[in-house]
Amino acid sequence: MSIRSYKRITPTIDSSVYVDDSSVLVGDIEIGEQSSIWPLVAARGDVNVIRIGQRTNVQDGSVLHVTRKSANQPEGFPLIIGDDVTVGHKCMLHGCTLGNRILVGMGAIIMDGAVVQDDVFIAAGALVPPNKVLESGFLYVGNPAIKKRPLKESEQAFLKQSALNYVKLGAEYLEEQA
């Protein structure tokens, strides 16, 4: 795996985290317990920070980045991802904040300043524009993403189960490396 320092800051990764050898993690990144980073993920915490919670998985080909601090945006836009989040294949997360128990569908894009509250399902291919807030408990679809309907009870349960499935898979991959 390629874990690189930037300005003498190296990613901090819990020992229970699976990181695929083909992923690239650079700079000020912290990854919580039992999370997983899958093939070809690029995460660059160079001009701001990336924080990934516990039991969160970032799947193949996803890109994680941030926006630098500026006069117009004194804090810039870090990338903050909560616990029990599933980021599907080939997603782009850029300077946004994701709460807990979220599923980001394949190919979705979430842009600077967007905030996704807890318990949200973002459909594949959705585009969440800058500074948009996605309210807890809903399915969002489209370009730009719109609130489609409240989540069903089974969908809310799936948010947590999806994360737990990847906790198990990540542990199996770590065991193979041992």
UniProtKB/TrEMBL annotation:
Know the name of this protein?
Gamma carbonic anhydrase family protein
Q: Which organism is it from?
A: Brumicola blandensis
